[in-house]
Write a structure and sequence with these properties.
elongated, 6 strands, three-stranded antiparallel beta sheet, 46% strand, Spermadhesin-Link_domain, CUB domain-containing protein, CUB_dom, Jelly Rolls, disulfide bond, binds calcium ion, 1 helix, mainly beta
């Protein structure tokens, strides 16, 4: 018989990996369009990254069990966008 609590997995951290990334940028940097990544579930959490451009960003790992991604964009110039996969980092429940 399976004991649910004993086998439950707890999400401890969230890992992001960028498969592709292309967001509008210019001389002003990440100004018109950008992706903000916060280390928590609200925009008052620490911001881990502000991303734009055409280079694939480094992987991002949360310090806790949530990450918030907020994409800011204006109404002109659309670039390719992004594909991101995430992985939950688990530890066995106690
Ligand atoms: Ca734009």
């Amino acid at each position: 018989m399976c004991n649910y609590d004993r086998h439950r997995l707890v999400v401890q951290r969230v890992h992001l990996h960028f498969l592709s990334f292309e967001v509008e940028y210019n001389k002003k940097g990440c100004y018109y369009d950008y992706l903000n990544v916060y280390d928590g579930d609200t925009i008052s959490a620490p911001r881990l990254a502000k991303l734009c451009g055409d280079k694939r960003p480094e992987d991002i790992l949360s310090s806790n069990n949530s990450l918030l991604l907020v994409f800011i964009t204006d109404k002109t110039k659309t670039f390719g966008g992004f594909v991101i996969v995430y992985k939950e980092i688990h530890t066995p429940g106690t």
